[in-house]
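Recall the central idea of this unit: under ordinary conditions, the amino acid sequence of a chain determines the structure it adopts. In this exercise we apply that idea directly, starting from the sequence alone.
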Amino acid sequence: MEDVASSRRLRALITNDDGIDSPGLWALAAAVRDAGLEVVVAAPHIDASGVGASVHSVRDDDGVRVHARTIPGLDDVPAFAVEGHPAYIVYAAGRGWLSPVPDVVVSGINLGANVGRSVLHSGTVGAALTAGLQGWHGLAVSLDSGWVPPRAPHWEAATGFVPEVLDLLLTRDPGTVLSLNAPDVEPAALRELREAQLAEFGNAQVVVEHREGDVHGTLVSSLRDVTEEPAADSDIALLAAGHATLTELRTVTAVPGVLGRVEAAGRR
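Accordingly, the structure predicted from this sequence is:
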């Protein structure tokens, strides 16, 4: 198990999918720096929510543009706005852009919970999973702020758990990815951190309607509340009960034996 004192000297890349101008990103960068890690910030130049692990970027003849930025209250922290999705930023960091490369990628704080199996679609989680593919530790951090963004999110409800969760993460094998969600409440109102299972769905389901109009019509998306009761040990249920939640995520892996299962099915 890695010594916590030595882990404090590790290098952290802070990113998100809400964009470089998100106060949640700034709060997370400050929390990770205050936990003792060396910090560099690189985030999309505009909002990139819902892009999953996309490595899309805006390219011209000169490549992908990177803009130096200054994070409020973190004048000493290198920061960049990148014209690409969060997973692209993480991928680029390990393919020659950043030196030294990060030991850990911390992504967030996302404005809105990332829960259930729908975390597949989250750019915040996609960045953390891409870190795992690079052989680094990954942590996605999200705030359960509801569908209507609050005027003053309680970022500290999430950042208060960052030192503890980083210590836990950095004792695990490289490639480990964790997802931390916190209710959007005053820290004094938080209940203890709980390990959570992924709910079957997310907080809501997207419903798509095909409306006639131009030649091919228009697809209009809307959100519908999930009517199924979540399991008591799921991230959705525990967040609703006031707990911060922690879930270990696995990235894409192969499942062996597919031909054997096909042959066995054919002999039935």
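The chain has one domain: 4-202+229-266.
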